[in-house]
Design goal:
122 residues; single chain; 5 helices; mainly alpha
Length: 122
């Protein structure tokens, strides 16, 4: 569940920024101080926070070591780093595979639907 939320957020923030840039004329239900520049700054800060959180979820203890903070992996997680990383990265890869399969199925269905619609209108 946590990985799904992170992956959704990783895609959503850039999508919001692109929509703001490409369609500035569309009314938005929210306001950000300083207009588009303020929105871009907020988007960058949120995205940086998401990336740091994602990195920490996939590779706990790495940032702590980088900043010189004591972090005994086994004491925190009660498993070896190798076991943790294998499970975590394996889960992420499995979710990516499921997503790619879902995308392929959706594209095939859309292509079939479009081909059927064109044949029906001729």
């Amino acid at each position: 569940m946590r990985t799904n939320l992170l992956s959704g957020a990783v895609a959503t923030v850039p999508a919001l920024v692109l929509l703001r840039i490409r369609r500035p004329d569309v009314p938005r239900p929210y306001r950000v101080p300083f207009g588009t520049r303020g929105f871009l700054l907020c988007g960058a800060l949120v995205y940086a926070w998401i990336l740091i959180g994602s990195w920490s979820a996939l590779f706990p203890g790495v940032l702590e070591q980088l900043f010189g903070i004591d972090y005994v992996f086994h004491d925190v997680w009660a498993v070896s780093r190798t076991s943790f990383e294998a499970f975590t990265l394996g889960t992420a890869v499995a979710l990516l595979i499921v997503g790619v399969i879902g995308l392929a199925v959706a594209r095939r269905e859309n292509t079939a639907r479009a081909a059927g619609g064109e044949a029906g209108t001729s």
